[in-house]
Amino acid sequence: MSKSIRVYSPASVSNVTCGFDVLGFAIEKPGDIILAEQGGKPGVRIKEIVGSDSIPLNPLENVASVAAQALVNHIDPKIGIDLTIYKNIKPGSGIGSSASSAVAATFAANQLLGTPIKNTFDLIPFAMQGEQIASGAFHADNVAPALLGGFIIVRSNDPLDVVQLGAPPDLYTVVIHPDVQIKTSESRKLLPGQVPLKSLVTQTGNLAGLVAGLLQHDYSLIGRSMHDVIIEPVRASTIPGFVELKSAALHAGALGAGISGSGPSVFALCKGEISAHKVHDEMKIAYESFNIKFDSYISPINKKGTIQIID
Amino acid sequence: MSKSIRVYSPASVSNVTCGFDVLGFAIEKPGDIILAEQGGKPGVRIKEIVGSDSIPLNPLENVASVAAQALVNHIDPKIGIDLTIYKNIKPGSGIGSSASSAVAATFAANQLLGTPIKNTFDLIPFAMQGEQIASGAFHADNVAPALLGGFIIVRSNDPLDVVQLGAPPDLYTVVIHPDVQIKTSESRKLLPGQVPLKSLVTQTGNLAGLVAGLLQHDYSLIGRSMHDVIIEPVRASTIPGFVELKSAALHAGALGAGISGSGPSVFALCKGEISAHKVHDEMKIAYESFNIKFDSYISPINKKGTIQIID
Predict the structure, then answer these.
(1) Domains in chain B, CATH or no CATH each
(2) Does A243 contact B at CB distance below 8 Å?
């Protein structure tokens, strides 16, 4: 057992227009860092949280400790681990903040214990247990990309079936995170209970096209497929300036744009870094008139997922 | 302009479990053959139909002549073409009988005229016009695979956006065509107007998995993804013995099975020829107790689509 392990786990975008609850991808930055150290007594504890004062220190309520504890319970409940969380992804931003912390903690704990779980893939269910206490749902659509990198399909959550798609080499993302509060539970209430069959056909055609575009590195097809006729129409109004942000992104040459997770973050996909910068600039300009504080990120698709930081 | 052209266009399976109205693939056999010859006066005529007496000779009612006429109208309405149709795919079988004839006629007419349409892909809309008079819908999900081969996604019918997926090398299909009548229009009436959002998520997860499995040549993923929670449950009862056929296929090792088009044909996908023969035998045995005549086919996925036959 090592004395301490430091791990970086990236933010992620889930839903990805037509891929509601099914598709997600990891971005290079931001990402949470977790330091896991041998603890004196059994159980996972939170030693300190750097960068956020809204996250619970109580290990039963913190996604990172719950995830790491799930792994510890599986290996040996007598093990003790202390976690220090460097929180770089703002909670409630819609870019997988809780998934990042849960994944980082699980990965760090497994490294600290000498990788008793040999296949990184098999860490997903432990991280999902952590994420569940934040989102209320047992979903892998942020956890899996944060852990594995690239685009992933969650074919099924139960039984868990996650498919790795990698990412086209020139694909970049721009994320605008408006500083407004959207509760996932409230956002879920807006979802339609029933969907017209015609919309299902449109949505499935686009999702099939998007998956094919990602695997065939067909940027034009990716762009043609990025339409959501089911979820975006009901959620768009919860994000102030969504229409303007999306319009600015497309006007500046983005392949497509949509809501990240259940918002409030808005993402665009772009071909190439130059295009991403142009899209970023136009989205920023479009949003400045709204008098809402926001963060913005330009990033290639993260292909490595969660990594140990060697000092 | 050549004097005569002979063309083979294969049967095809559309819908493909979770890919309702979106996914299709071509099979090696059966397939229709069309002989196109220079005609004496303007317009496309049907000279003879060999192998079926239920198909209209009136060129305004026949999918092949309507499709070829659409192309002729586009090139030069003064052109005359006589078609002889060798009908090998039974009409109403659910394996793209009308699409095969429409595609063969379009392709043959284009060859006869010295390929004024340079890109085969661009023949799709003409063939769709023919198919439309048989199915009542303007759909490319049988036309596109019959023309191009392999698996195809119809991302959108209008504007037309078709994506070619090719096919994994060891993928085979078994088709059982029970000799019963199902009217597509009746079968359409069974479709639900609305679909629960939860079913949409299940269906989209499976379709994304199926597309990824086809492109990554992951046979296990193809099998895990071949589930239809929306259409098959309402249409299964229209096909006598469907449950038994599907069960026999899966029991014999098929990756998955489902309704071809709107039936009555039932198809299975298998890894390798040996498995396909086993699945074929078990499906035949299962169906013999139903006292319904049936045809059966074993075939690799057709990768070439429609071809000119050089005598």
Answers:
(1) 4-166+303-308 (3.30.230.10), 171-300 (3.30.70.890)
(2) no
Contact in structure between A70 and A130 (CB atoms under 8 Å):
yes
- Out of B21, B208, B215, the one facing A19 most closely (by C-beta) is B208
B45 and B81 in contact (C-beta within 8 Å)? yes
Q: Choose among B153, B197, B212: nearest Cβ to A191.
A: B197
Residue with tokens 């059982």: B176
What pTM value is reported for the model? 0.97
CA distance B306 to B299: 16
Residues 6+ apart with CB under 8 A from A233: none
pLDDT in tens, B197-241: 999 999 999 999 999 999 999 999 999 999 999 999 999 999 999
Check whether the bond before B116 is cis (ω within 30° of 0).
no
* B160 and A CB contact within 8 Å: no
ipTM of the complex: 0.96
Rounded distance between C-alpha atoms, residue A96 and residue A25, angstroms? 10
Does the beta carbon of A310 lie under 8 angstroms from any beta carbon of chain B? no
For the purposes of burial, counting CB atoms within 10 Å of the CB of A191, is it exposed (0-12), middle (13-18) or buried (19 or more)? middle
Q: Which of B21, B197, B224 lies nearest to residue A155, judging by beta carbons?
A: B224
Tell me the HSE value of A72 on the side-chain side, using a 13 A CA sphere.
Answer: 26
Residue A1 is predicted with a pLDDT of 59
CB contact under 8 A, B206 and A19: no
Under 8 Å between Cβ of A105 and A167: no
Distance CA B69, CA A153 (A): 44
Q: What angle do CA A294, A295, A301 make, to 5 degrees?
A: 140
Phi and psi dihedrals of B143, rounded to 5? -60, -45
